[in-house]
Amino acid sequence: MRTFATTLLVALLAGITSLSLTGCSPPGMTLDKVSGNITFDGQPVEEGRILFRAVEGDQRAFSGAIQNGRYELESLPGKMTVEITASRIIPGKFDESNPDEKVPMGEMYIPERYNSKTELTAEVPAGGAKDVNFTLTSE
Length: 139
Hints:
single chain, 139 residues, mainly beta, Immunoglobulin-like, eight-stranded mixed beta sheet, two-stranded antiparallel sheet, 1 helix, 10 strands, 14% helix
Protein backbone atom coordinates (compact mmCIF):
# COMPACT_ATOMS: atom_id res chain seq x y z
CA MET A 1 0.00 0.00 0.00
CA ARG A 2 1.38 3.39 -0.95
CA THR A 3 1.72 6.07 1.67
CA PHE A 4 0.23 9.49 1.17
CA ALA A 5 3.75 10.97 0.89
CA THR A 6 4.69 8.51 -1.87
CA THR A 7 1.46 9.21 -3.75
CA LEU A 8 2.02 12.96 -3.41
CA LEU A 9 5.59 12.62 -4.70
CA VAL A 10 4.45 10.59 -7.72
CA ALA A 11 1.72 13.16 -8.48
CA LEU A 12 4.19 16.06 -8.19
CA LEU A 13 6.71 14.36 -10.48
CA ALA A 14 3.99 13.63 -13.06
CA GLY A 15 2.87 17.26 -12.93
CA ILE A 16 6.42 18.57 -13.28
CA THR A 17 7.05 16.26 -16.22
CA SER A 18 3.91 17.42 -18.00
CA LEU A 19 4.76 21.06 -17.30
CA SER A 20 8.25 20.66 -18.70
CA LEU A 21 6.77 19.40 -21.96
CA THR A 22 4.38 22.33 -22.39
CA GLY A 23 7.20 24.65 -23.36
CA CYS A 24 7.97 22.76 -26.58
CA SER A 25 7.35 24.99 -29.57
CA PRO A 26 5.63 24.00 -32.80
CA PRO A 27 7.67 24.34 -36.02
CA GLY A 28 8.00 27.93 -37.16
CA MET A 29 7.33 29.42 -33.71
CA THR A 30 10.21 31.44 -32.26
CA LEU A 31 10.66 31.39 -28.51
CA ASP A 32 12.76 33.87 -26.54
CA LYS A 33 14.94 33.09 -23.51
CA VAL A 34 13.80 34.50 -20.19
CA SER A 35 15.83 34.15 -17.00
CA GLY A 36 16.15 35.62 -13.55
CA ASN A 37 16.44 35.10 -9.81
CA ILE A 38 13.79 33.91 -7.38
CA THR A 39 14.01 34.48 -3.63
CA PHE A 40 11.66 33.55 -0.80
CA ASP A 41 11.96 35.54 2.44
CA GLY A 42 15.34 36.83 1.27
CA GLN A 43 16.82 33.39 0.46
CA PRO A 44 17.25 31.82 -3.00
CA VAL A 45 14.63 29.17 -3.82
CA GLU A 46 16.87 26.08 -3.95
CA GLU A 47 14.70 23.90 -6.20
CA GLY A 48 11.31 24.32 -7.81
CA ARG A 49 9.42 25.12 -10.99
CA ILE A 50 8.32 28.34 -12.65
CA LEU A 51 5.52 28.56 -15.20
CA PHE A 52 4.73 31.45 -17.53
CA ARG A 53 1.18 31.34 -18.97
CA ALA A 54 0.06 33.68 -21.75
CA VAL A 55 -2.71 36.02 -20.60
CA GLU A 56 -4.24 36.28 -24.07
CA GLY A 57 -4.90 33.85 -26.89
CA ASP A 58 -4.63 30.13 -26.23
CA GLN A 59 -2.98 30.71 -22.81
CA ARG A 60 -0.02 28.59 -23.82
CA ALA A 61 2.29 27.74 -20.90
CA PHE A 62 6.10 27.65 -20.70
CA SER A 63 7.91 26.03 -17.79
CA GLY A 64 11.42 25.86 -16.41
CA ALA A 65 13.35 24.53 -13.43
CA ILE A 66 14.51 26.67 -10.54
CA GLN A 67 18.00 25.72 -9.31
CA ASN A 68 19.91 27.63 -6.62
CA GLY A 69 17.60 30.63 -6.97
CA ARG A 70 17.96 30.89 -10.79
CA TYR A 71 15.65 29.92 -13.61
CA GLU A 72 15.74 29.97 -17.38
CA LEU A 73 13.00 29.11 -19.84
CA GLU A 74 11.87 29.86 -23.36
CA SER A 75 8.61 31.72 -23.95
CA LEU A 76 6.63 33.58 -26.54
CA PRO A 77 6.71 37.36 -26.04
CA GLY A 78 3.76 39.01 -24.32
CA LYS A 79 2.01 39.46 -20.98
CA MET A 80 2.19 36.37 -18.77
CA THR A 81 0.85 35.20 -15.44
CA VAL A 82 3.60 33.50 -13.44
CA GLU A 83 3.32 30.51 -11.09
CA ILE A 84 6.14 29.42 -8.79
CA THR A 85 6.15 26.15 -6.85
CA ALA A 86 8.70 24.56 -4.55
CA SER A 87 8.73 21.90 -1.87
CA ARG A 88 11.09 20.97 0.93
CA ILE A 89 11.53 18.20 3.49
CA ILE A 90 10.23 19.00 6.98
CA PRO A 91 13.15 18.24 9.33
CA GLY A 92 12.31 15.53 11.89
CA LYS A 93 8.86 14.76 10.47
CA PHE A 94 8.17 11.32 9.00
CA ASP A 95 5.23 9.34 7.65
CA GLU A 96 5.22 6.03 9.51
CA SER A 97 1.80 4.79 8.34
CA ASN A 98 3.36 1.67 6.76
CA PRO A 99 5.00 -0.82 9.14
CA ASP A 100 8.80 -0.71 9.12
CA GLU A 101 8.82 2.29 6.78
CA LYS A 102 9.86 5.79 7.80
CA VAL A 103 9.40 8.26 4.92
CA PRO A 104 10.46 11.92 5.26
CA MET A 105 7.51 14.29 4.89
CA GLY A 106 7.60 17.35 2.69
CA GLU A 107 5.65 20.56 2.30
CA MET A 108 4.83 22.94 -0.49
CA TYR A 109 6.07 26.13 1.16
CA ILE A 110 5.49 28.81 -1.47
CA PRO A 111 2.12 30.51 -0.70
CA GLU A 112 -0.75 29.95 -3.17
CA ARG A 113 -0.75 33.65 -4.10
CA TYR A 114 2.40 32.78 -6.09
CA ASN A 115 1.05 29.59 -7.74
CA SER A 116 -2.53 28.22 -7.76
CA LYS A 117 -3.96 31.72 -7.04
CA THR A 118 -1.07 33.68 -8.50
CA GLU A 119 -0.76 37.44 -8.30
CA LEU A 120 2.49 37.42 -10.29
CA THR A 121 2.79 38.73 -13.83
CA ALA A 122 5.63 39.38 -16.26
CA GLU A 123 5.98 41.03 -19.64
CA VAL A 124 8.24 39.03 -21.96
CA PRO A 125 9.73 41.38 -24.57
CA ALA A 126 10.53 40.23 -28.10
CA GLY A 127 14.11 39.00 -27.95
CA GLY A 128 13.75 37.80 -24.34
CA ALA A 129 15.04 39.16 -21.04
CA LYS A 130 17.78 38.24 -18.57
CA ASP A 131 16.60 39.82 -15.33
CA VAL A 132 12.97 38.93 -14.78
CA ASN A 133 13.31 38.50 -11.03
CA PHE A 134 10.75 37.51 -8.40
CA THR A 135 11.02 38.40 -4.69
CA LEU A 136 8.53 36.28 -2.75
CA THR A 137 7.60 36.57 0.94
CA SER A 138 5.67 34.45 3.41
CA GLU A 139 3.88 37.55 4.72
